[in-house]
Please model this.
Amino acid sequence: MKIKFKKDKIERLAKKPAPALPRKSARSGHLKRRVDWHEYFMNIAQEVATRSTCDRKHVGAVIVRDKTILSTGYNGSVRGLPHCDDVGHMMQDGHCVATIHAEANAIIQAAKNGVRVDGADIYITASPCWNCFKIVANAGIKNIYYGEFYRDDRIFDAAKQLGMRVSQIKPPK
Model:
């Protein structure tokens, strides 16, 4: 089957401007805003955080390269061991040490599945602690985007020395 288009109709379509944002949803009629990529991946990290099994802090991480999700992780107990939420916390120096942090879990998940994270970005709902920063840096991740600041500002100087970007993404108002 051949479909023929008249040239003038195609030219009119090409000249039609893109809709301005925000726009009304065709379905509901409500104003709709399309989120940018950073907000999109941070939103996904926030959803991943809902899987956390340590109620002291829910953290999620998403590793991304070329706008494609490579891996996700959340803070939780060692696979096969009981969850903090169920049996309590293993406290040391005011912190629960029973869990593996979200960033480490995301990198471990990628490695387990044979996914290369070198040169990728990571979106984390909280900035990495010093140990997780070192893991992220050694994994070859180039950019760290975080939601809230979490306790360790050594990461900023180290990132600068390594040529890594560490940026906060604040939630929309």
Observations:
- Residues 37-49 form the longest helix (13 residues).
